[in-house]
Amino acid sequence: MTATKIALVGIGKIARDQHIPALAASDAFDLAATVSRSGGVEGIENYETVEALLEARPDIPAISYCTPPQVRYAGARAALVAGRHVMLEKPPGASLSEVHALQSLAAEKGLSLFATWHSRHAASVPAAKAWLADKVIRSVKIDWKEDVRVWHPGQQWIWEAGGLGIFDPTINAFSILTEILPVEVHVTGAELRFPTNCETPIAGEIRMDGPDGPLVTADVDFLYEGDPFWRQIIETDAGTLTLNQGGAIMEIDGGAQQGEGWEEPGIHGEYDGLYARFADLLATTSSEVDLRPMVLVADAFTLGKRLDAPEFIDPTLEES
Ligand code: NAP
Q1: CA dist., res. 287 & res. 172, Å (int)
Q2: Residue 126 CA, ligand 1 centroid: distance in Å
């Protein structure tokens, strides 16, 4: 198999922690160039802008975007216009309408567009989906709590409109939820806490109904100190399924479900899974764009009551 040349756009935390190692381990892709304002990756050709890359490298057919959502659309559109396949970090854009526009353009041009949800590739998500498939879901309790100062130091874009605030991690929970539940859910209400100096929320509670009434509550917090909670507890007619550590660990009625050969998972396996899926999509020139997690977030903003929270000062920005 000949590896497909790919370019990475935006060499920040997730590009360095996950995309570059996953591409290095992939037989399907060859990292051929980067687009980076800060120099890119040693030994890899770098361009200042997506337009410069597209002009100089017609031999690169696929482009993967790791930039913040607010600056994703123009570059992704330019790539599709130039006939390149596109992969997008989560969330796939700053708004639903811009992702719809990219989806239409990809279809019109006969190109692959992959809106990724890395948490759906966590180790226990497929097993959870399979176990829940024939169950009656009685309730879902999501706890998504982490310390933004530890996990997102210096990422000012998270606090600017379109950066999602606490929904930047919470959308991962919603991506798992919409993947594993055998029923559709919709947001019915929320309380969102906005620091008085930020444009996005830092904490909140979100409620969703299933087909027969109230089903999901989510308690989300970006100032949670200590070990993070990335957990969903799903009560069913046949027992309680708990997905922990962002979908890595599954328990049923308190009993671990990891069978023989199961390895302690890290987020890394999720990115191997994403690039394997992108390779599949390229092989059939098809797209995968499931916007349900983003719809739940957008509806939480639409229906949520806005409450004031104390100012948030990022200590890492104060130090710099
Ligand atoms: P980050 O560390 O801030 O990196 C984003 C990079 O994008 C920057 O380093 C910069 O790279 C480039 N960039 C271009 N225009 C920018 C602008 N106007 N403002 C800031 N950066 C700009 O963010 P990240 O954590 O990697 O997150 C990027 C995306 O990945 C987000 O959508 C996030 O939700 C998603 N994600 C993050 C994580 C995580 O754990 N951090 C996990 C999964 C997914 P150059 O200097 O190279 O241009």
Answers
A1: 20
A2: 28
Instruction: Find the 135 Cα to ligand 1 centroid distance in Å.
Output: 38
The C-alpha angle 283, 100, 203, rounded to 5 degrees, equals: 110
Other beta carbons within 10 angstroms of residue 251's beta carbon come to 17
Q: What is the residue extent of each domain of the chain?
A: 4-115, 123-262+298-319
pLDDT tens profile 229-278: 999 999 999 999 999 999 999 999 988 876 444 555 555 589 999 999 99
pLDDT at residue 220, rounded to an integer: 98
Distance, in Å, from the CA atom of 73 to the CA atom of 81, rounded to the nearest integer, reads 12
CATH of domain 4-115: 3.40.50.720
| CATH architecture designation of domain 123-262+298-319 | 2-Layer Sandwich (3.30)
Residues 75, 102 contacting (CB under 8 angstroms): no
pLDDT at res. 269: 83
Block mean pLDDT (10 aa), the chain, length 320: 94 97 97 97 97 98 98 98 98 98 98 98 94 98 97 96 98 98 98 98 98 98 95 98 93 77 61 97 97 98 98 79
- Closest residue CA from atom 38 of ligand 1: 14
Supply the DSSP symbol for 288.
B
**Phi, psi for residue 92 in degrees, rounded to 5:** -70, -10
For the chain, how many residues are written? 320
Amino acid at 124: S
Q: Which atom of ligand 1 is nearest to the CA of 39?
A: 47
Asked whether 66 lines ligand 1 (CB < 6 A), one says: yes
Q: For residue 226, what are its two tokens?
A: 């200590």
**Nearest C-alpha to atom 39 of ligand 1 is from which residue?**
14
pLDDT at 260: 45
